[in-house]
Specification:
This protein has 134 residues and is mostly helical. Helices cover 72% and strands 6% of the residues. The chain has four helices and two strands. Strand 1 and strand 2 form a beta hairpin.
């Protein structure tokens, strides 16, 4: 259940960050590492993720604060994974494999958020406690 939740949180955060950046993006977040990420996209992704966490918590009957805390861990770690992968690729002078998936940034662009988010969500969930129902 935690892996499904982690997947859901990371994908929601990434998707709404992209949408918010496209619709409202003006202020660049880290232009040297990721020239299209914006503060507005980050804010949109976080807001959508917190609303989703609230709705999921209400639906499954777990502690809303704990699920929102886990959602913030997912957002922060997904962003950290994305920026870390971007830094590594830039330092190596590689743009990943865009010819394989031209719409995406490449294969690493799909998994970069997971490099950090998956293990950190497991650690965070163990520290948060047994809030999960059942």
């Amino acid at each position: 259940a935690l892996m499904v939740l982690a997947f859901l949180f990371v994908e929601l955060f990434d998707s709404f960050s992209l949408l918010g950046g496209k619709l409202f993006g003006r202020t660049l977040l880290v232009p040297k590492l990721s020239p299209r990420k914006t503060w507005e996209g980050l804010a949109t992704g976080c807001a959508a993720l917190l609303l989703s966490a609230w709705a999921i918590a209400a639906f499954i009957g777990c502690d809303v604060r704990m699920l929102m805390l886990l959602a913030l861990v997912a957002a922060a770690s997904a962003l950290a994974g994305d920026l870390t992968a971007s830094a590594i690729k830039r330092k190596a002078g590689v743009k990943d494999y865009p010819s394989v998936l031209p719409v995406q940034g490449g294969l690493l662009d799909i998994a970069d958020s997971w490099i950090v988010a998956a293990p950190l969500m497991v650690v965070a969930a163990s520290f948060i406690g047994r809030w999960w129902p059942g």
